[in-house]
Amino acid sequence: MRLKKIIIILFSLLFLTSLFNKVYADDFRAQYQVEYFLNESENYLNTKVKFNIKITNLRSDIYVSRFSIAFPNTFTITNLKAFDDKGEITPKLEKGQFATKIDMAFTEPNVGKDSQNNFYLEFNQDNLFKINGNVWEVILPTMEKKEDGIYNIIVHLPPGTDKKISIAKPKPTAISGNSILWNNPATKTVYAVFGSEQLYRISLTYNLNNENIYPVYTEVAFPPDTLYQKIYVENIKPKPNKVYLDEDDNFIGRYYLKPKEKTNINFQAVIAVEAKPRPEYRQYTKDSFQWQKKYLLSQQKFWQLEKISNIDFLKNLSTPKDIYKFVVNTLSYNFDRAGSNNYKRVGAEIALANPKDAVCTEFTDLFITLAREKGIYSREIEGYAYSSDMRFRPLSLSSDVLHAWPEYYDLKDSLWIPIDPTWENTSGIDYFNSFDLNHIVFVIHGKKSDYPVPAGMYKIEDSKDISLIPTADLPKEKINLTGCFINLPQKINDSSKYIAKFEIANQGNVYIYNQKFTLKANQLKFDQENYDLPILAPFEKKEIQFSFYALNKNKLINDEIKIFYQNNELSSVSIKIIPRLIQYLTYFSLGIFSFGLLILILRLKLKSLKKI
User: By residue range, what is the domain housing residue 339?
Assistant: First the structure.
């Protein structure tokens, strides 16, 4: 007696059925191939999707006659067509509360052991691959991997496109031309980014208020350059009184506020987020870590376990990945708390005591705390994470939906590695082995866990202070350096050594790195002619001290001191070299003249007294 079986596949981002293994594993073997054909038109992506489902009967008394597949209602399916081996068939659509089910029946199914039947499904979907500024991004749902089956995903990029896959979770099995293959992916989703650089146009408002009756200096943190992020500053209004980089390389602007003064600072920029470490920043990262590491293992507010009595679990954690997996599996994201206006950061200890009540700061604080306990250098990043779906990639630091994530330092490669245990917990996407292009850094917390304060937190009222949108327009890099001399005498003698300073100011729109400056003069000798400047932020100034003396003796000479940058003259100052002998004679002559003048004045005074 032949029994008929109906197979239902739930195809969803949230869950994948294991019905086959429980009921039908001994009855048939299913092989799946899903192909996505991308078509780009007028900055719009449409995807043609093809399913090929091959079902092999493993028993002679049972065969498959019907097949159903369900998609979430968020899938916008159009132009649906279905086929079997005999030709086109008419599928039956049934729309439920959360999913749309497509039911198909074989026209004349093949029966018998080892016989095969195929279903072919074709449709268009216009909201699967997303164009976000300069990149394409996709999250593809997957089937549960079958031990005896085959499941392939193939993405075909449009012919002639310059987009290349830069981030993939998991890694593709193979890439051939414009086609990318994943063979039996074990993850719940396949996440991919096409394009190596994402651009964001950003506008930030900092609301400053001096409540004191005396003037104060206050500081704000602008988004900095990092290993994976480049800033193109378009405008800072008003300009800071001073700009500098702090010990964690935060981009700090200092402002002078009068008593009771209120003011708004507006920062506008384009931010480029890179898939790979920026070459110009790598050496600076390595060098700056050498003095940062003195505090990157210390306990801080929110990063301590003093009240936790049982820390035996730490024995099993030895690597960053061990700690990351522990945090992901221990904490659970609380969406209700994330959306509350009464959000308050609680730190690692309370996070461990209340693992079901965590948001992004608890995931981050716990990772950093455990990492530092195990001697792994780590720090916190607070910023903005661009998310198209809050269910899978939530944001939760303020009304401006900020986000927090940790970084650890890879001693082997001398790199900071960003990770996001929060988003892996909520989405199931791997955020340890590779990152994404959606995280924008506002501040870096290594020395202190809560300072500086990120943009979006400088509030007087419940205002919306962050505007960020993806863009495809790459700004032009403007390099504009100026130089000047400080405390440089216009006249010197030929026997003394002098100390002065020169100042380099970055008036351009980007950071500069690893630049060399040279002092030149014809008749002067410098203790050091060449100077290296590792980094200089936009509007930042650096003073460099130098010493010099005259080369030739006993000659009256006019000379110039010049500052050169890449063979371009930045500044020059005239200087007169006066021989010491002439100086002595000059001083002697002046002395004699002064003495004679004094005698003359005294004589005139005496004559005046005699007349009286």
Answer: 200-471
